# Entry
Amino acid sequence: MVIHAYGPLQVRDDPAWIRQQMSALTAQQEKNLPLPWQVEDAPHDFTEQLIQQIVGIEIPITRWQGKWKVSQNRPRLNRDSVLTHLEQCHQPDSEAMAEQVRTRLEGSKNGSSQ
# Structure
């Protein structure tokens, strides 16, 4: 599954904006860890130096385009192998993807184009 986002690219060099993005991304990536790290945990001089070296990019989205490619056009043996592997991973994303593969395969068996 893929989604392409379209919009005008904007370069952001505002240190406050970059700091906010760093903090938000760090919080998102660390939220499920037993001891989540925060940008403020790093030495102030270090983060200030990083912020000066980062070029921020923002894309206000004007259009989306999505496409489903979840093995529905592959031979049965390949599809079964994909499902087996996804089910053995025991990860939330893998289980969700296995469900999408199953749903799309059932749809293609019934003649719908997905």
Observations:
- The radius of gyration is 21 Å.
- The longest strand covers residues 2-6.
- Residues 68-109 form one domain.
